[in-house]
Amino acid sequence: ELLKDGRTSDAIDQFQTFLRQQPNLVEAISARQLLGRALAQQQRWPEAIEQQRQVLTMNPSATQRLDTHALLGEAYFGAGNFQDAIAHCQEYLRARPDDGRVLTRLGIAFIATERLDEAVVRRLARLDKCFGAEPTPQLTPDTLPIEKVAADLRRLRRQRAGIAQRSPVWR
Predict the structure, then answer these.
(1) In principle, which of 3, 91, 120, 144 could form an S-S bond with 69, CB 3.0–4.6 Å?
(2) Are 110 and 118 in contact (CB under 8 A)?
(3) CA 73, CA 110: separation in Å to the nearest integer?
(4) What is the pTM of this model?
(5) Are 92 and 70 contacting, i.e. CB atoms less than 8 angstroms apart?
């Protein structure tokens, strides 16, 4: 409730209190995950990363594990650690390949690490699938029309520039 009401600091305090008092309850996994999310909202990246990493050690459910990879991808991205952001986004996308937010974050992280061809190819393949078109078979940089590659790269660069102006987190 506190997170939904925009009372992030109060939510952080309550999650931390709960985790100090009941660190071993099953609910502690969800509380730690939400604490990490709240810390990320405040751009407290190292703390958010630590909470999410702890979730992975607590025997989370498959859904919690998957969500934690998405949250770690976001936190590492916000912290500017694009290699780890890529790894966690890819882990998440194995199960949910059509998540546009995570795909975009992955594409921008690829650009930030100068893996441009890979970023464009992956983004185009997923965008085609997201919008209902049949994915291009055996999509490689050599088989893509150059205009489509150039347009997608320009769009990703604009998104990256817009993110840098607004916030380090893709929302």
Answers:
(1) 91
(2) yes
(3) 13
(4) 0.70
(5) yes
